[in-house]
Amino acid sequence: MKILVVGATGTLGRQVARRALDEGHQVRCLVRSQRRAAFLKEWGAELVSGDLTLPETLPPALAGIEVVIDAATARATDSLSVKAVDWEGKVALIQAAHAAQVDRYIFFSILDAEQYPQVPLMAIKHCTELFLAESGLNYTVLRLSGFLQGLIGQYAIPILEQQAVWITSDIAPMAYMDTQDIAKFALRALSVPETVNRTFPVVGTRAWSGYEIIRLCERLSDREAKIMRMPLSWLRAVRKVARFFEWGWNLSDRLAFVEVLATGKPMIAPMTDTYAVFGLDPKDTTTLEVYLQDYFSRIMKKLKELDYQQAKARQKKSAAKKQAPFV
Hints:
Elements: E1 2-6, H1 13-22, E2 26-31, H2 38-43, E3 46-49, H3 58-62, E4 67-70, H4 82-99, E5 104-110, H5 120-133, E6 139-144, H6 150-160, E7 164-167, H7 179-188, E8 198-202, H8 210-221, E9 226-229, H9 232-242, H10 249-255, H11 258-261, H12 272-278, H13 288-323
Helix pairs in contact: 1-7, 4-5, 6-8, 8-13, 9-10
């Protein structure tokens, strides 16, 4: 199939593009920066310049495309707002895809998005789901929780480097999932007719709290975490301050997601029906334990090799000094 991946330079989007290429699909990626997306071209994808906030750039990108897989979202540090990308941009993309007679549209949403209308990103995701359902396109919505990849920078690296791990008390547990597994579901939907015009949760095997993840990282790294607790009131205050400045609007909208986690309700959903419909085996899904164990075993091995090399270098330098003649 000829697939357009939107958001292909992101954590999830790149895994979708990689999986699609590995399965033999023709992959085109809509990118704002050709330089930043150079790795996608090296993988074998076609790059086309475009921007969700510039609707006129979308029709050329969709020419000849059969499937759109939409993994784009505004970043907290992006100059573009959540509204501009995740709502106005998605509306433009869906309309352009319909005009181009695209056969299928895969959209990544957030679990329980309809339950939090006061949270900008959640409200926008839910509205986009509704807009897509009424667009006339054949669609599949995959509702996600957190990504395993995000845990490396949040927990693993600070613990390894003996830096502070910031954690907020009373935050709801989350069912993290490997983006490679999410990509597998997205591509599998294209060959399963039962997934057309339906919405599915795609989340991890169990919900983990921040403290549980920290304890696991400590055990796997054999290092003690320096935990810094951040009250929810601090994050709420930061959000209010950020709203005063235009450059902080995107950050403020992202921080509003804390209100979802503050409910204490675990971000998890039953996956039995999802696995059955997609014809996938839950045993093949990477668990958080396995993911972090693999990461730490690779890192600890590299650290040991580095320590060995440094020790050898010191021995060699010491031996050279002993053999040097007196001046």
